[in-house]
Structures are given as C-alpha cells and as structure tokens.
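Protocol step 4 of 6: structure prediction from sequence.
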Amino acid sequence: MCCLYFSTSFMWSLRHRILPWNFDEVSLFTSEPHTSQRTLAIPQFMQTLPTPITMGKVPGLDSVSPQTAHLAGVLEVRCCIVCEVLASLNRLSIRVAEARGMRVDSVESFPIRVRRKEKLVAASFTYPDYQAVLVRVACDGVAGWGEAMTRSGPKITALLVEEYLGPMIVGKKFDSPESVWHAIWRELRVRGHTRGVEVEGLSGIEIAVQDACGRLRGSPVSNLLGRRRASEVPAYAGSLFTSRGPLKSQVEVAKSLGLMGAKVKIGFGAERDFASLSEVRRSWEECELIADANG
C-alpha cells in the first residue's frame, strides 16, 4: 500500500510541476525500469536521478552543484521516494493481482508423438520418434500452456498430469504461481515422489500456470520471474547425432540458422567420441562446442 501511495503522490507531483521532471520524461525512464544505465537528468542542475539498482541511495546534491544546495532537503527526499517507486513499479501490479488470487479451473494434457524416418541413437537410449506432452491449465477462465518433458510413453505422463497432479489444484484458489507449485510439491514429497516422471509432469503444469498468470495480468512471464537481465540470449544446436547422418551437414544447418554453437552426443567410446567432436570443430572453428555426456 505504501508503494501505491508513493507512486500516486509522485505522479501527482509530476503533473503539478513540483518535481523538476515532466511526465513524459519519467514515462520514458520508467518504460525500462531495470536498465541501470538509464538516468533521468534534473534540468539545468546536471543532477542525475539514481537508477532502481541503487536501492534508494542518493548522492548529496550539494556535492554536485552549489546552486542546488538549497534544494538538497526536498530533492533528496523526493529522489528516495522516486527510486523506491521505480524499483517496485513492475512488482506493484503483480502484488495487487496476487492479493486477489486466482482459481485453477481445469488441467488438461495432450500427448504428442511424431514418428521419425530414422531413429536417433544415443549411447544409452534410442529415440524412434519425437515425444512431448502439452499441458493446458485454465485459471479464472484464462488458459495457459506448458510442456512436460517425456523420454518415452507420453500417454503415461499425460495421464499422470490429468489424474494425479491436476486434482491436487483444480477448484482451489492460489495467490501466485509459486503457491501452485508448492501445493503439488508438498503432496509429492510426502509420498516420496520427488524424482522422475512426476516432476516432469509438474514442470508442464508450472509453465502453464505461469503463462495463464501472465495473460491474466497482461504482463510477460519474464516480468513475473524477476528483473530483466538481458534482451537476448545465445542459442545452440542440440543435439547432433551421428545416427542422423554426417555431422558436417548438421553443422551447416546450425550455422545457417545463426546459432552460436552445437551440442554433440557422446558416450560411444573415447576414440569415436574424439573423432565426432573433431569433425564438428573442423567444420565450424568458431563454434561453442558442447559435449552431451549424459548418453
């Protein structure tokens, strides 16, 4: 409630020119509140507003410009308020929404199996096809989608999601996606089901709930998870299988997609693994080469 009060007071002050910034300047600044390099200059005084990362620590104004010394008391207080507001603006709407809570209406699962022309052979298992389980969770009438990993038997994972995990949360109200996860985890832990397919099914539900929550709040899921750290992340090709054909051809596909590296399946003996990794390195000298050693 304090954040709401301060933000309201702050915006009122902007509109009535009590603070030395106009509304558009602050709107531009707060559009990227987690970018520590962005600053908001006090016109004519060369004083810089601290970014949210400073956590309310404001440099003394009288040490920057003697002409502003008489404003130090007022502006330092307002800068502290502004800094705290900027640090919490993104989280404020989320907290308000969490106070209302959300009800889980339904949990559905959809097993998918796509047959391949050739098998993908690893050291300890074989993929005859692509498999996945899509999970749909509706919260307050809004559906979110997730994916549960499955090594084999997608129908088994799908059944577990609908018949075992889903009933733990359907019809109940939660204040956040995290509380949904903990509600299921408590049930699994009591039964010793904290490994394997149960947790894979839980992951699909968790992703779907996060998606639904973001849609309900009109916010990207990245905002729900915390402060934005980067606008883009590198991606690599994973995994390259020798059973799929020449590794050089697979490398060319990865390079054409603008990827930064490749992960190669190993576990077939030191000599064969070394030959595979060397082939990729010769074909793509600058790539980030990753050995997929889990077989």
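Step 5 (inspection) to follow. Residues 107 and 166 are 5 Å apart (CA to CA).
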